[in-house]
Amino acid sequence: MKRGLAVGATLLFVSGILTACGEEAAVQEPAPEIEAGEVTEVAAAASSTAETKVFGPHEGVNQPVVPVKMERVGEHEVNIEMTAQITDIEIAPDLMYRAWTFNGEAPGPLLIVNEGDMINFKLINIDPAIPHSIDLHAVHAAPSVKFADIMPNEEGVFSYPANDPGVFMYHCGTDPVLAHIANGMHGTIIVKPADGYPTDSEIDREFVMIQNEWYDYNNLEDFANGEPSQVVFSTKALNEGDRNTNGDTFSLKDEPLTANVGEKIRIYINNMGPNEVSSFHVVGTVLDDIYIDGNPENHMTGMQTILLPASGGAVVEFTVTEAGDYPIVTHQFNHASKGAVAVLRVAAE
Ligand SMILES: [Cu+2]
């Protein structure tokens, strides 16, 4: 709404300037001598909606979600196939963002492999306009070779060993990386530890949560020097039937995550940035066990808030001892006030 008003105000302002006298009739609609293109261009600078400002080559491009393909083809080998594509995402009520995505989701689909797996990765770039790529933080690989750009309407195949357990970010690494991440090309890959976590047997319920920021639509200047317009959470399906949401201000408030009193909850959390850290905090409990970056070796206990750098992940575990609503936030409340609040609704058994 606020942005809609801003665009309207800009249009009125521009109309006034261009017609020089600000007659009432001219304010109602652009004067005939104004080229429509001029107005569109100026108005676009203040807008973030897909309807009013779209990267030229992506005008009219809104590609349907393509399910990710993950197939185990051997005891220690998995094939993953993803698309790079352009898809509209609702990031706040009635605010659409023409996101650059993996598979039409932002954050992209959750990837899950086992420690020791060889990942055979195929990236199909169906964006008709620009190259994209995949940078997996979970692997050792030469970026210039294995994270290489895939041109529009082409595909690339790369193999990577996943030998480190944890909760890792993946993202598009194509220049300018900031634009590709801020426009939505990021996600989480979980590499499950071969020997599990020492607290596995205590866990009753688990979720995935991801934090990311949104800025003015495809505005590299705002990505680089501005403040995020929205800071958001999403959840992704860890098991079949779990929810998949995009990074938005409302989904995890309108429809809370749910648990029962007395349960020990595990959350796989990952911060996409692109720019901000997360001070991840669950109101009404203490984080009993924390595995920084999701590695079982990085076990910490009894923490109130964990710091996730841009790209950083963790596994956090806590108990809910009373029924009620438990907000989950980044304790940087300027960011929480921009959307980064989820609710865990705990029912009496
Ligand atoms: Cu990209």
Walkthrough of the structure:
- The protein has 349 residues and is of the alpha+beta class.
- The protein has 3 domains: 2-47, no CATH class; 69-192, Immunoglobulin-like, CATH 2.60.40.420; 200-347, Sandwich (Immunoglobulin-like), CATH 2.60.40.
- It has helices at residues 2-19, 24-28, 36-44, 143-146, 177-182, 220-225, 251-254, 333-336, and strands at residues 69-74, 77-92, 95-102, 111-114, 117-125, 135-136, 155-162, 166-171, 186-192, 205-214, 230-235, 257-260, 264-271, 278-282, 287-292, 299-303, 305-308, 313-319, 324-330, 341-347.
- A 6-stranded mixed sheet has the order 11-10-13-18-15-16, with no helix packed on it.
- A hairpin with a 2-residue loop joins strand 2 and strand 3 (95-102).
- The radius of gyration is 22 Å and the shape is globular.
- The two termini are 41 Å apart.
- Its EC number is 1.7.2.1.
- Its cofactor is Cu(2+); Cu(+).
- This is Copper-containing nitrite reductase.
- It comes from Planococcus lenghuensis.
